[in-house]
Input
Amino acid sequence: QPVLTQPPSFSASPGESARLTCTLPSDINVHAYNMYWYQQKPGSPPRYLLHYYSDSDKGQGSGVPSRFSGSKDASANTGILLISGLQSEDEADYYCMIWPSNTWVFGGGTKLAVL
Amino acid sequence: EVQLLESGGDLVQPGGSLRLSCAASGFTFKNHDMSWVRQAPGKGLEWVAGISIGGGSTFYTDSVRGRFTISRDNPRNTLYLQLNSLRPEDTAVYYCVSTIIRPGDHWGQGTLVTVSS
Output
C-alpha cells in the first residue's frame, strides 16, 4: 500500500492561513485520485471535511465552513488542505486519505496548533 | 440523522477473539458500502476492512487478512467485525464508518479493543 506523508505538526496564529500537505509517493500520481480530508479533535471520532479531485470535482462535508478548501500541487505530487482565517476551534489532527483498489490509505496526520 | 453505534470492545488475551457490532440508523443501510477503521492509542488512523452493499465483496488490510472477518446483516441494519487470533498490536479504538456519499462521511464513536495478558 502507498504511504501518504503528512508533516507531524503545523502551527499558526488566529486569523492566519494553514496549508496542510499530503505527499504521495513518486510512483502514484496525485491527479489520479480523489483526496479526502478528515478532522479529529481530542476524544472525538474523525469528522469528514471535504474531497478534492479537481476544481470541477470537489465538495464540502455537511456543515463544513468554506474556510476549509482543497487543492493539489502537481509539481510536488501533493494534496493540500487550506484553512483560512484560523480559529482556535480549528486546533485538531488532520488526516488525508486516498482510495486505491478497494482500500483506504490514510496519511499519518498533522497536528495543527492555533497559537 | 445518521447514527453508527459500535459495541463489543473489551479486554482480551493474546490469541483471543471478539466480535464487534455496529448498529446503523438514519440512512438506508443496505444501499451503502461500510468499513472499519482503527486507531491505536496516540496513533493515526488505519483502515481495517470494507464490505460492499450486499456483502458479497470484502476487503482487508494486509495485517488482518485471515484473522478478521467483516460482515453485515442488512435486515438488522448491523455491521460486524469478527476479530480472531488477536495480537497486542491490534489494541485500538475501532470505528464503524459509512460511505453514504463519500468514503468516511460518517463515523461512530468507536469501541475500544485491548489485547493484553
The CA atoms of residues 1 and 26 of chain B lie 5 Å apart. The interface with chain A takes residues 35, 37, 44-47, 50, 57, 59, 61-62, 95, 102-110 of chain B (CB under 8 Å). DSSP finds no helices and eleven strands in chain B.
